[in-house]
Sequence to fold (212 residues):
Amino acid sequence: MNWKKKLLNEFELYGITDLKNEDPEIVSKITEAFRGGMDVIQLRSKNLPDRFLLEIGKKIRQITLRMKKLFIVNDRLDLMLALDADGIHLGQDDLPVQIARAMIKDKSKLIGYSTHSLKQARMAIKEGADYIGFGPIFETPTKPNYQVTGLDLIKKIVKTAKIPVVCIGGIDQSNAKSVVKAGANRIAVVRAIFSSPHPFHAARELKRMISQ
Fold:
């Protein structure tokens, strides 16, 4: 088993950028978060120009290969291929898993899929997703129009899924422990790391909460 497959099976802390501006510090923040224990980075931006994302993505690719961390691109199949990222993360309004899989020649590339209900989770698993995101667990400004799933379904989804399930949505140092107690063994965060003045310490504290 190569290190990427091993990390897919074992990852605990998944970081997501939500870049609205050209943040010159984002690469150093990602590096510090990796040092603090973050296992996966997803490059996500809904409004920045492709040229900037390509430039940042190339730097992230170099760091993730050197530090043996997973690099996922949100939504953009073209950008994922151009950067030779480890995979793509798709949402309910994006390409279905099966279509995306058919378009990616390298079958080692990972496909993650966002789900917001047990039905959607089962469908993503059936279609061949490599991992699923589940949430939003709590209210979050990154998904303001989505109904909160809460904590009750976490244990059931994690128990029945044969692939990694990462819980997402409004999770930070104040509530991560409750998510873990509800049955999660993986969490994804945006602001809890990248809005922190100290990404290293933020990641280390979150990782500690998951691992305990």
Q: What stands out?
A: Residues 3-211 form a domain with the TIM Barrel fold (CATH 3.20.20.70). Residues 50-67 form the longest helix (18 residues).
